[in-house]
Design brief:
The complex is a heterodimer. Chain A is mainly β. Chain A has no helices and 11 strands. In chain A, β5 and β6 form a beta hairpin. In chain B, the strands form 3 sheets. A 5-stranded antiparallel sheet of chain B has the order 1-3-8-7-6, with no helix packed on it. In chain B, strands 2-12-9-4-5 form a 5-stranded mixed sheet, with no helix packed on it. In chain B, a hairpin with a 2-residue loop joins β6 and β7. Chain B is globular, with a radius of gyration of 14 Å. Classes of the chains: A mainly beta, B mainly beta.
């Protein structure tokens, strides 16, 4: 987990507030991902980026935006938080050797609560 | 639509026994499948990858099989230990997601000493 860090680790906020979750990695990977995890639903992909100039929507991007500030940094923003965005958020990275088979390395997660 | 299902029940087993976890997928045929372990409050950690042309893959006490006819992967933990207690996630690529990994909800395994 130390190679992929997330800040903050926990955040409680109110409905309507703008929130930014940050992810940094020292693995030198080009590919970065944001997931949310809800009980019983597994991990769901929000956004992903294959390099600094590449941003792609995942299966549940509505209500979220991202910024890839550098190879090592990928931020997730909730423009106007709502209670159903309460979840555990994970950042992950993978390298681009050999196309799609590569394992992903996850950060420790951010627990977000929207009141 | 494409769907991934893992054992819905948690598994509670005695130390030394074998735990067998199931991952079923419907309406598509992934070229490979990954398995991850997740401990409470932590991010998933990669364990094994198996490709469609591989029937079985092993890593220490872990064994994964991939049956493309049954559309199923089985994950076995042999000679289980209390330290194996965790949630295990299967993750095949999903065409709906442009072949990015789609994670199952996971199966929680508890190994009793």
């Amino acid at each position: 987990d130390a190679d992929v860090t997330q800040t903050p680790r926990n955040r409680i906020t109110k409905t309507g507030k703008r929130i930014m979750l940050e992810c940094s990695q020292t693995k030198g990977h080009d590919r970065m991902y944001w997931y949310r995890q809800d009980p019983g639903l597994g991990l769901r992909l929000i956004y992903y980026s294959f390099d600094v100039k590449d941003i792609n929507k995942g299966e549940i991007s509505d209500g979220y935006s991202v910024s890839r500030q550098a190879q090592a940094k990928f931020s997730l923003s909730l423009e106007s938080a709502i209670p159903n965005q309460t979840a555990l958020y994970f950042c992950a990275t993978s390298d681009n050797r050999g196309h799609v088979y590569n394992e992903q390395f996850f950060g420790p997660g951010t627990r977000l609560t929207v009141l | 639509s494409q769907k991934i299902e893992q054992n819905s029940e948690a598994l509670n087993i005695q130390e030394g026994k074998t735990a067998t976890l199931t991952c079923n997928y419907t309406n598509y045929s992934p070229a490979y499948l990954q398995w991850y372990r997740q401990d409470p409050g932590r991010g998933p950690v990669f364990l094994l990858l198996i490709r469609e042309n591989e029937k079985e893959k092993r890593k220490e006490r872990l064994k994964v099989t991939f049956d493309t006819t049954l559309k199923q992967s089985l994950f076995h933990i042999t000679a289980s230990q209390p330290a194996d207690s965790a949630t295990y996630l299967c993750a095949p690529p999903n065409p709906v997601n442009d072949y990015k990994l789609s994670f199952g909800a996971g199966t929680t395994v508890t190994v009793r000493a």
